[in-house]
Amino acid sequence: MDWQALQPQADHKRVLIVEGLNPRSVGSISEEILLVEVAGQLALRRTQLLESPELGDRSSVTVVFRDTFLPHSHFDITNAYNISVAYKGTAVAGKKQVAGGKVIAIRADLRAPVFDAHSIEMVLRLLPLTDDYVAELPVFHAARGERMMVTLQAIGREIVTDSMGSLDAWKIRTEWDGVTQYYWRGVEDQQLVRQSSRLKAGVYLEFARG
């Protein structure tokens, strides 16, 4: 994998609740990926900001080393909890502070290198997708405090049409320990243009351009 291929960038999407044919705007989400230096090494810092009166605000910052995408740290601030974890080799340590002030220690010996769960959307941009491409990626999910395997599969190409025009995109299905999410990635520019996950029967949460 050519990790150097991912360049600093920024993105902004609408947050939608989709029920049937009726999408409803409930906020926005922005992403910024910057080149930084940590521990004397080049790294990428990914910041996501969700603003939604209905879903709640969220701020997530994930730092990965530039040449491997192995994680350095992750911070997550939501209305329900604050999380901070740091990685050192295959060990991870940090804490989760939930509403009300209770602090839960996060410690794990992962025994093998993993990705941070919040960096997977950066990895998706770099995968050499083809028809029926399948991959499994080991990740540490800080909110759950556990290691898990994420399965990804390219399930075909679709034309994504939105307010910014039409784009030929790969549709990717991801499985997160029983939770399914779909992503659409541009064939030519490799940008993530849409994301969808099921909230309940017939109701979906989507991040979309425009």
Task: List the SSEs and their pairings.
Layout: E1 9-19, E2 22-38, E3 41-51, E4 58-65, E5 71-78, E6 81-88, E7 91-98, E8 103-109, E9 115-116, H1 120-124, E10 134-141, E11 146-162, E12 165-176, E13 179-186, E14 192-200, E15 203-208
Parallel strand pairs: 9-10
Antiparallel strand pairs: 1-2, 1-15, 2-3, 3-4, 4-5, 5-6, 6-7, 7-8, 10-11, 11-12, 12-13, 13-14, 14-15
Task: Kindly describe this structure.
There is one protein chain. The protein is mostly beta strands and 210 residues long. The protein has one domain. The chain contains one helix and 15 strands. It has a 15-stranded mixed β-sheet with strand order 8-7-6-5-4-3-2-1-15-14-13-12-11-10-9. The protein is globular and about 45 Å long.
Concise structural overview:
With 210 residues, the chain is mainly beta. It has one helix spanning 120-124; strands spanning 9-19, 22-38, 41-51, 58-65, 71-78, 81-88, 91-98, 103-109, 115-116, 134-141, 146-162, 165-176, 179-186, 192-200, 203-208. It has one domain.
Q: How many distinct helices? A: 1
- For the largest beta sheet, what order do the strands appear in spatially? 8-7-6-5-4-3-2-1-15-14-13-12-11-10-9
Compute the gyration radius: what is it? 17 Å
Number of structurally distinct domains: 1
Descriptive labels:
single chain, about 210 residues, mainly beta, 15 strands
